[in-house]
Amino acid sequence: MKKILFSLLLVTILFSCSKNGDKVSQDFMEVYYKDGITKQEAQKALDYFLPRWKEKDGETARKSIQLTKKGDTINFKMVSNMEVMDKMEDELFYTTGNELSENLFNGAPVNVLLSDKYFKTIRTYSFKKLEKPVFGKKVSNGNIEVYIKDSFSEDQGTDMAGFLNKSMQPANIISFQVGKNENGNYVVSMVANREKADALPESNFMALASEISENTLNGAPLIFQLTDDLFKPFKTFNYKME
Questions:
Q1: Domain ranges in the chain?
Q2: Closest C-alpha to 65, from 36, 102, 24
Q3: How large is the C-alpha radius of gyration of the chain?
Q4: Which of 68, 81, 194, 199 has its CA 20 to 30 A from that of 55?
Q5: How much is the pLDDT for 14?
Q6: CA dist., res. 91 & res. 97, Å (int)
Q7: Would you say the pTM of this structure is higher than 0.70?
C-alpha cells in the first residue's frame, strides 16, 4: 500500500511539474517556462527580478512566474495577491509589459497575466505599446538608481546616489527621482511599496529627507515624496532644517 501511495504521489508531482513547465529557481524565486521559452530566457528573467523583488528587511515571500510563448508574443504570468493588485492602476501593468519587452525579449510584445497559485489566469493585460515615460537621466551606485531632471546636475545626482547607497545599503534596487518644482524647491521622490510605507511612522521618512538634505543638498529644504513605479506620489513630506 505504501508503495502504491508513493507511486501516486510521484506521478502527481511529475504531472504538476510537467503541467507548469520546467523550472529555474534561486532563493525566494521560481520561474517556470514552456511552449517556446528557452531555459536561457527563463534564467535571464530570474536574474532580472531577483534584485528587484528582494525585500530589504526580513524574508522575502516566494515569487512564482511562468513564461510561455505564442507566435511572437510572450505571456508573463505571475502568481498574485489580488487584494494588493486591485489597488494598483492598470497603467502599471501595461508599463511592466513594455519594460519586459525592452529589457528581456528584444522588443517582442509581452502580455502580463495575473494568476492564482495554480497559474490559473485571473486577469490579463494584453500588450500595448506605450510611449516611454521620461523619468530623467539615470545615474546609479550599487542598488540605488537616481533619475535627474530639471536643472539638477548629473554630478549632484551621482553624489546623491553614492550617499544613498552607502547610507541605506539596499539588498534590492531602489529608485529615486530628483528635480525642482515651479517654485524652485527641490523635490526628491522614492519608489515605495504603499502598503509597507503606510505601516511605517512618518518620522522614518522625515529622517531620510533630513539626511538627503544635509548630506547632498547643503541643508536646503525639500519636498520628499513616496511614489509608485511611475513616480506618481501617494504620500508627501515637507522638510525644512530647523
A1: 22-125, 137-239
A2: 24
A3: 21
A4: 68
A5: 41
A6: 10
A7: no
